[in-house]
Each structure stands twice: as structure tokens, then as C-alpha cells.
Write a structure and sequence with these properties.
six-stranded mixed sheet, alpha/beta, 9 strands
């Protein structure tokens, strides 16, 4: 299969490994609507590719991704734009849930917002020593997304998940490892010599065994994750209409303007 036509992601097949890179370094790899749509596309397309066993998400440059691009806005009806954005986002989360391949989050640097929560959607997550994880949803007048209201308490425990999702507390690379959010912390200097060879080795494992094993592991939490995604997206749509969100966006725009002066 040829992975062509991607404008916002770098998508490259390396034998049985499909490497997907967030590719917007000037904006710290922020994700806009077209990028969400490309994420959905690649995770859907790869299900039909028998030549790929493992999908790896990582970032170009120093960041994994700084999360949602808050500068994007619609040109027409705002409510309609928010509904469309919500549907696009929900489809992206479902594409992670429904991906039959092993999905790796190789977190090469800071992972903020959706950058942090898609780690919880991945089958395996490794991070660089320079990485940290931040989910500033309440600071923006929003709520947990990306299935994180279910997955993070499951992974981190309720107390730590509440710190991260509600109180905007960051997770360092060491904390992420200690709380089982990632299963390996690597030195940046090891990426080419140790990490990528290991990923290629995993991609050579018997593909049907990988897929069926993944399916069995997911059965224990799939229903809860799907329910959380539905609930989160409904609440996000309501939160987008709340004065707290509009105030947060105005504050963000004001800080951005001041930083340019």
C-alpha cells in the first residue's frame, strides 16, 4: 500500500513498520483539523495493509505535540464549526480504538493535551528523558478528552489521574514510568542505535498473533473506553459554549499578542 497525499503528517513505511510523524515544528507540532483527519485516515488505511504490523507515532523536532491548535477558527457559523470539529475529533479517537495493528507512542519530547491523551490510547508508550505530559483541560475551561477520563484512572490510579486531568499537574518522564504511563524511558542518543532497531524487531513478529493478542487485551476495557469517548465528546460540545471556555481563549489570545510585543 502506498501512503501518499498526506500534507500535515509525515507518513513513511519502513518494511513492516509504519512511521507517522507530527510535522509542524514551528508550532511545536500543534494539531489542527486536517491533521486529525489525516490521523483518522492513516489508522484506518493501515488496517487493510498486510505488510504493516506496527504503527509508530512520534514528532519532528523537539516536541511530540503541543496539542490542539487553539488559533484555528471557522469562517461561518461558529456552532456548526464546533460540531464539525467535535465529530472529526471523535472519529480520530475511534480510529485509535479500532486500529488492528500495534500502535506505539514514541514520545520524543513534550506531549500536551491530545498529545498526552493519545498515549493512553496506544498499545505501548515509550518516552525520551526530555518528555513530559500535560493535560491543561480545566485551565481552558474544558474536560478530559481522547478517552482519558477512562484510560488515565485505569493506568495511573484515580488520584494521580485527577491531578493530571483536573488540576493541570504535569507528569515528568520519570513519573510517567513510575505510574506505568510509559514502559520505557530512553536517552535521545539511543533513538537510532537502540530504539528504532527494537521497533523493527517487534514488527517482524507473527502479525496474526499480534492482532489477536491485541484484540483479547482490549476486550477487558473496550466497552468502557467507547462509552467514555461518547460522554467526553458530548460534554466537550457543551463546554465549548460555556463562558469559561471563551474567557480561556481570550486569555490565550491576549498572552500570544503580548508575547509578540
Amino acid at each position: 500500500m502506498s501512503y501518499q497525499g498526506y500534507k500535515h503528517l509525515l507518513v513513511e513505511q519502513q518494511e513492516k513498520l509504519l512511521v507517522v510523524k507530527f510535522n509542524n515544528p514551528p508550532r511545536k507540532n500543534c494539531i489542527n483539523r486536517p491533521t486529525y483527519q489525516e490521523m483518522t485516515r492513516v489508522l484506518t488505511e493501515v488496517n487493510g495493509d498486510e505488510g504493516v504490523a506496527v504503527v509508530v507515532f512520534t514528532g519532528v523536532g523537539e516536541y511530540f505535540t503541543a496539542g490542539n491548535d487553539l488559533s484555528q477558527s471557522g469562517n461561518g457559523d461558529l456552532n456548526e464549526y464546533l460540531k464539525e470539529s467535535n465529530a472529526i475529533f471523535k472519529a480520530m479517537v475511534l480510529s485509535f480504538v479500532n486500529c488492528q495493528k500495534i500502535v506505539f507512542a514514541l514520545v520524543n519530547g513534550p506531549a500536551i493535551g491530545i498529545g498526552a491523551t493519545i498515549v493512553g490510547l496506544s498499545d505501548v508508550a515509550w518516552c525520551s528523558e526530555t518528555a513530559y505530559f500535560l493535560a491543561p483541560f480545566t485551565k481552558l475551561g474544558l474536560v478530559p478528552e481522547g478517552g482519558s477520563s477512562f484510560m488515565l484512572p485505569l493506568i495511573l490510579g484515580r488520584s494521580k489521574a485527577s491531578e493530571v486531568l483536573l488540576l493541570n499537574e504535569p507528569l515528568s518522564a520519570a513519573e510517567a514510568y513510575n505510574f506505568n504511563f510509559v514502559s520505557r524511558v530512553y536517552k535521545s542518543s539511543e533513538a537510532d542505535s537502540v530504539i528504532w532497531p527494537k521497533l523493527r524487531q517487534y514488527a517482524e513478529l507473527p502479525p496474526n498473533s499480534l492482532q489477536q493478542g491485541k484484540r483479547l487485551i482490549k476486550e477487558g476495557f473496550l466497552e468502557g473506553l467507547l462509552k467514555a469517548n461518547d460522554s467526553e465528546c458530548r460534554q466537550l460540545l457543551e463546554s465549548f459554549q460555556h463562558p469559561e471556555f471563551f474567557q480561556a481563549i481570550m486569555d490565550f489570545a491576549s498572552r500570544k499578542t503580548k508575547s509578540k510585543l
